[in-house]
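Input (GTPase HflX):
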Amino acid sequence: MSDDFDDEAARKGGPQAFIDQRAAPTRVGLVIPDVRGRATTHSIEARKAEFEGLASAIRVEIVFSEIAKVREIKPATFIGGGHVEEIAKRVKEEEIELLLVDTALHPIQQRNLEKETGTKVLDRTGLILEIFGERAATREGVLQVELAHLNYQKSRLVRSWTHLERQRGSGGFGFMGGPGETQLESDRRQLQDRIKMLEERIEKVRQTRGQQKGRRDAVPFQVVALVGYTNAGKSSIFNALTGAGVFAKDLLFATLDTTVRKISLPHGREVMLSDTVGFVSDLPTDLIAAFRATLEEVLEAHVILHVRDVANPDHAAQAQDVLKVLEELGMSAETTPIIEVWNKVDLLERDADGTYPALATLSPLGKVAASVPVSAQTGEGLDRLLDTIEKVLGGQGRTYRVLVPHTAGADVGWLYGHAEIIGKDEPDENGQVYEVRVEARHKNAFTERFAGRIEGSDAA
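Output:
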């Protein structure tokens, strides 16, 4: 693949544009290892359902999905020889083209499993990279996916097979359709050169983002970021609050590239609402690092909306995974207020009085500013959510009363641009008194501009 990918193709649909949808879906088998003694917050049934969801996120036909009990991890194949023999037999009988294994395999384990089963093997990391490769639609997203893929590829001395290579040809992109045929067969030195070049390009994107952020900081809009486990309904909530047409579907990683829209809160305050990529358990470290720039909207957020799918029986473990990723990004409830959004209450049983018994025993995870039950599908609870966002943001500023003379029109404009107008008195001969809430970042400018006109001791 050349150093420059097709920008026009990316704009028309990104990596998806390389897929020949006429090709028949690849026949795959899923193996979910259940390792004895391994600490995990997810039940094996929940892990199986999630892995099936991950596989369904790409164009494959799931022929079988089974749990493999692992008493002891085998250095050569991860799972035991008996299981390998059974899988190999099933692969042959059912003409399986790709075997997906729900764990992070060492390169030698992957190659040995391919030899023993007679088919191509992909582990959990590789599958997630493939999904991201199909979802990336912006230039930055494409670069980040390729970088994560190449870092993954470094430890694999032979080119990993991709189930989409027959659909995409030698110019494919993504994990299975990652860098083109020539690059994947080149030596480690060329691979490292490509990685260095991608890192330089992404750094330029970050610099540009920093310049844009500087311009955004001049605008008094606070950022409210949606985060959550993949498929928790973040994009559905985003669409319901903004009226945007962001892709929202019952599909893992439906959203990859960050989307930002301006919304108005009940009392007129305007904020930027940011929809971000969903998290998942065991998200590859390289992918978290590569997408750090994309997640900068979260890092800069004034409030985080942690969306939880409370209709999912595994939501508590999912929430823990989300907080773990936030922690890896350097965020916590100690630094940024978190509002838990309990989504999909429309899927819960409701009592005659309209309450949801399942919510009575539900508790927020960790320290949160508030928790709000909502349904993105029916709209229930969204007004309360907006009120809560406004209340939490309001707690980050201080309230003042300030006199503005009739001749000081520019001061009125400054207040509307840099503060929240809570109320105003009837005008008199001296002007009009405004009650405003001012954030800490604007306090110095406010007190300097309105010196001598601020009422009460709260101006200190």
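Residues 188-217 form the longest helix (30 residues).
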